[in-house]
Request: fold
Amino acid sequence: MPHLRPLALLLLLFCLHPGIAASAEDNQQPAPLGWVYLHDGAHELTSRPGKHKEKSDHLTQGTLAPVLKITERGGVKWAQIRILNLGTASSQTGWLEEAGPADILPAETYPRDADLLRQLGAPYLDDFTAEHTKVARFLVRQDPRPPLLLCYVFADPLPTAKLVVFTPIQGKYLPGASLDFPISELKAGIISLEVRDLVGDGNECLVSREPFRVGPETRGVNVVIRRITESTFLTVWQAPVEFRNLSEFKSKMQILQPPERNIGTPGTVTTGQVTFHPRGNGQEPIWKGKVEFFALGREAAVDSVSIEKACAWDGKEFAPLQ
Reply:
């Protein structure tokens, strides 16, 4: 292409290499006006300010979200924020009620996504990967130290998502402990995450819902509770809230005792939920649900058992469900 002038050649390269164009476009995105930190329970995100009945998503405790706009409707402050839906790995915008300027942290309080990706290094330094990377943020209080910045980093081109802790050190957020989650069209790494002070010592726990699949008819969702140590994520409890094991069946149905021993056994479908009840200075998980028993060739359940169990903290971990 010797006849092309330098400027024309540069424009042509922009068109032929979408990664270059996307990188330049990303640099032109405006910085957030600030950050909203949801430290006191779950919140609802609405599609428009003032439209309480038009809910668009559910925000969990501990979420840290960038603020895009601020407005007022009927004397109520609203903030437009952007979040990452972990279940679909899609970015969404919506409006949060009562998010006035006093509730919004300054924009310079936390680094932008591009700065965090540079700290993570390869493969997030690649232009194409960076363009297709989304970040969900959470704050994890670790008294008496400043809160940790927890990020779930999802990149479409990569086979894994990353949960990584950024620690504030001398005015910068540096990456520390991390955990990788395999992802595919059939399996997401984490579908929801919230932050709770379960132990009562000021060091908050992570409560996540994580799908698993062993085979076509063996799959489910675990609730996992983790604590953050100086160098790693420590799992202190795990229990399924969905567990379908119909890949094989017992020749003779047998209901085990105690009933929680039946969870995940061949020929069963388990459904349950986890709630948190106050206990001492903290909270303990309560598992409540049922296990249904199936026979080969029969659609309806043959039998079922109900289960409710409290799992207390023993100083190191919560008592196992099974």
